[in-house]
């Protein structure tokens, strides 16, 4: 059996191992081939009945299953089946389901689970993933938590995603962004952080100073961002877990777009001096700063390649904003964008295969991707004002912000461009940045 999903996953995924909980299925082996044809995405039909729970935990069990279902659906690669179509009612997760009942409704994968309250008050959440047509268990695991049940749901979704696609999931992650409130001419901007699906929002700065361009470290739950207080603009490091904040450095002139190196040991940024803006890298251990460009132009928005060997950035050295790539140590830069319009905010994919960008042409702002040599440019979405792409840690989904006149809002789109949705936030939101996986 062959399913066309997207030209984004490996051509064949062997699904035959028995993992996690007790082995309940027969020794049959099945091969599910996921053929990858860009632009012809056929989501995998999957059934996710409500998890079982006793007493006051029954609603919580249903909520966990609902979050798992939403995560998988929002990826664009899975098509959860309507619960009204279910024939079998799952009452015991310790026995195999009646696979024939699930084949009738064309479910190709099935997820069952339960929540059990432990004697110490903790919740134990179990799930099993079944290959319906082969009639065997593919995966299973249990998680213990005191209260963070949403994270348990994201972890389960990650395991299912990885088992059925061969790719790492991205659901157990967070996004930091700039929350915006108040009148348009007097916006209060503060840093906020949320789960990747828009839940569990909390604010991490108070709004008494202007904050811009938050960026996560790829190795830790730490961010770097710009702050404009009463003194000169400063670049800060902030530990999300402890709340500890420190100044990276006080630089003369304006500072823009700080971003971590892949190993988290450096911050690269743009410093404006006079009419020019050049790129600098600061070693966070020694606090030494190295100048990387000296072009007499505006060089900004630098982003490292995943191996740390190269940098992509935007520059107007050729007359208008375009994208360039150079060695991480500086030197000659190669222009890679040659389409009509202006290119900005380039960000290298964690996979290394693509560079995302903002493109302005014909009165529209587009979010697109191209290969690191500039070939294969594709526009994923466009509109009145789209800007600021950020990659999910598996390199398969982007977030960005869009302002259609009322105020900015955050959206996500996958790299096929077919699956776009708005991420809910309490107020206006801009400049999202995706975290590395929490686990």
UniProtKB/TrEMBL annotation:
Its main location: periplasm. Residues 33-138 form the TolB N-terminal domain. Residues 1-30 form the signal peptide. It is found in: Periplasm. InterPro entries: 6-blade_b-propeller_TolB-like, Tol-Pal_TolB, TolB_N, WD40. Gene3D superfamilies: TolB, C-terminal domain, TolB, N-terminal domain. PANTHER family: PROTEIN TOLB (PTHR36842:SF1), PROTEIN TOLB HOMOLOG (PTHR36842). Part of the Tol-Pal system, which plays a role in outer membrane invagination during cell division and is important for maintaining outer membrane integrity. This is Tol-Pal system protein TolB. It comes from Methylopila musalis.
């Amino acid at each position: 059996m062959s399913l066309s999903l997207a030209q984004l996953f490996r051509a064949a995924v062997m699904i035959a191992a028995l993992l996690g909980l007790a082995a309940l299925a027969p020794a049959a082996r099945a091969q599910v081939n996921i053929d990858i044809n860009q632009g012809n995405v056929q989501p995998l039909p999957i059934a996710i009945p409500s998890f079982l729970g006793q007493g006051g935990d029954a609603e919580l069990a249903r909520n966990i299953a609902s979050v798992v279902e939403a995560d998988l659906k929002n990826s664009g690669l899975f098509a959860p089946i309507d619960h009204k179509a279910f024939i079998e009612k799952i009452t015991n997760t310790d026995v195999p389901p009646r696979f024939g009942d699930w084949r009738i409704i064309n479910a190709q994968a099935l997820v069952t689970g339960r929540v059990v309250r432990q004697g110490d008050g903790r919740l134990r959440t179990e799930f099993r993933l079944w290959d319906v047509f082969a009639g065997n268990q593919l995966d299973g695991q249990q998680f213990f938590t005191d209260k963070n049940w949403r994270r348990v749901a994201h972890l389960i979704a990650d395991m299912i995603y990885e088992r059925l696609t061969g790719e790492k999931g991205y659901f157990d992650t967070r996004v930091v962004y700039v929350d915006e409130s108040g009148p348009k001419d007097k916006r209060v901007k503060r840093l906020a952080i949320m789960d990747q699906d828009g839940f569990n929002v909390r604010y991490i700065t108070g709004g008494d100073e202007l904050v811009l361009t938050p960026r996560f470290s790829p190795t830790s739950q730490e961010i770097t961002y710009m702050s404009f207080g009463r003194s000169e603009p400063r670049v800060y490091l902030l530990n999300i877990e402890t709340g500890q904040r420190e100044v990276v450095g006080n630089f003369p002139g304006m500072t823009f777009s700080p971003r971590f190196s892949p190993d988290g040991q450096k911050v690269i940024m743009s410093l404006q001096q006079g009419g020019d803006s050049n790129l600098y890298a600061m070693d966070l251990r020694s606090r030494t700063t190295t100048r990387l460009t000296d072009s007499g132009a505006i060089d900004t928005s630098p982003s490292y390649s995943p191996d740390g060997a190269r940098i992509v950035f935007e520059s107007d050295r050729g007359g208008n904003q375009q994208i360039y790539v150079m060695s991480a140590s500086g030197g000659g830069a190669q222009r890679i964008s040659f389409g009509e319009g202006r290119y900005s905010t380039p960000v290298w994919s964690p996979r290394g295969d693509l560079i995302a960008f903002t493109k302005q042409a014909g009165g529209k702002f587009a979010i697109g991707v191209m290969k690191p040599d500039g070939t294969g440019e594709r526009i994923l979405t466009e509109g009145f004002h789209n800007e600021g792409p950020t990659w999910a840690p598996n390199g398969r989904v982007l977030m960005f912000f869009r302002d259609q006149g009322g105020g900015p809002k955050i959206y996500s789109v996958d790299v096929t461009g077919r699956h776009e949705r708005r991420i809910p936030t309490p107020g206006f939101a801009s400049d999202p940045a995706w975290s590395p996986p929490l686990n």
